[in-house]
Design a protein that fits this description.
The protein has about 200 residues and is of the alpha/beta class. The protein has a single domain, classed as Ribonuclease H-like superfamily/Ribonuclease H (Nucleotidyltransferase, domain 5, 2-Layer Sandwich), CATH 3.30.420. It has six helices and five strands. The longest helix has 24 residues, at about 130-155. The termini are far apart.
Length: about 200
């Protein structure tokens, strides 16, 4: 069972991102503030849930959260600032949009840049420990999966409707056979012979 609160009495925003390891598409981050004693029997790290369960829990998050926000950092910006910084920028952008100001920020992972004067805690595998971080991971993943599925319609053959941009065999084979799309991250190792893609 995930914990509903880290501090006990503060308004906490959980933050997480998805898409760091993808070859194409944006990094997407989310921030979620849940009621202090919130409970949800199905809530867990988005990677451990089926698509159907993620969609089901997402509806509850949108209904029950005190505040939530989702932000993108596009593939071109990922190339410019690197994917770690893109993850942090995305979380900051999501926090900027919250209609409730958090007193504490819980971040999945071990890297974060200070967000104004609001204290934060980095928690490794936090999406498997705290409700608010798990909720952020679910919102970010469902948003990004939907986005990549839509992009797969205009860019068929790469399997984005199922691999959502991650480096599967199908995705790499399509890059080799079809070339890259405008949504591929040029700073990533798309193929061993990557340089040939840009000649």
């Amino acid at each position: 069972m995930l914990k509903s609160n880290f501090s006990g009495d503060k308004v906490e925003a959980g933050c997480d991102e998805v898409g760091r390891g993808c070859l194409a598409g944006p990094v997407v981050a989310a921030a979620v503030i849940l009621p202090i004693n919130y409970s949800h029997g199905l809530m867990m790290d988005s990677k451990q849930l089926s698509k159907a369960k993620r969609e089901l829990i997402k509806k509850d998050i949108l209904k029950d959260a005190l505040a939530y926000a989702i932000a993108e950092v596009g593939h071109e910006e990922v190339d410019q600032i690197n994917v770690l910084q893109a993850s942090i920028v995305g979380m900051h952008r999501a926090l900027d949009q919250l209609k409730v100001r958090p007193e504490l920020i819980l971040v999945d992972g071990n890297k974060f840049n200070p967000y104004g004067k609001t204290p934060h805690h980095c928690i490794i595998k936090g999406d498997g420990k705290y409700m608010s971080i798990a909720a952020a991971s679910i919102l970010a993943k469902t948003y990004r999966d939907d986005l990549m599925e839509k992009l797969s319609i205009s860019h068929p053959g790469y399997g984005w409707e199922t691999n959502v941009g991650y480096p599967t065999k199908q995705h790499r084979a399509a890059i080799k056979n079809l070339g890259i799309t405008p949504y591929h991250r040029k700073s990533f190792r798309l193929l061993p012979d990557q340089l040939e893609l840009f000649r």
